[in-house]
Amino acid sequence: MSEIENPKDHPTGNAEKDPDDWTTGDEPMTGAQASYLKTLSEEAGEPFDDGLSKAEASKRIDALQEKTGRGK
């Protein structure tokens, strides 16, 4: 009998998934994403787009974190 890995043994493994591969990536961004993205946009002097999908918001957050030095 082969051993099945317990996903709880690697709780952050799914956090590494590319937003383009998310099954819910086309859904509207979450409230938490919108709030953080708005803050980052203001700090970076960039426009805030409230019409992004979850995946697009995630990518935008990553880019603005790089620009502002936040989240690293």
Structure keywords:
single chain; mainly alpha; 0% strand; 72 residues; 2 helices
Low-confidence stretches: none
Q: Mean of the pLDDT scores? A: 84
Please, what is the oligomeric state?
single chain
Our count of helices gives 2
- Order of SSEs, N→C? HH
Number of strands: 0
Q: Termini distance?
A: 42 Å
What is the rounded Rg? Answer: 15 Å
Main beta-sheet strand count, sense and barrel state: none
Structural class of the secondary structure composition? Answer: mainly alpha
Would you mind describing this structure in some detail?
With about 70 residues, this protein is mainly α. The protein is about 40% helix and about 0% strand. It has helices spanning about 30-45, 55-70. The longest helix is centred in the C-terminal third of the chain and has 15 residues, at about 55-70. The protein is globular, with a radius of gyration of 15 Å. The termini are far apart.
Task: Provide a compact summary of the structure.
The protein is built from two helices and no strands. The protein is mainly α and 72 residues long.
Topology summary:
Layout: H1 31-44, H2 54-68
Helix pairs in contact: 1-2
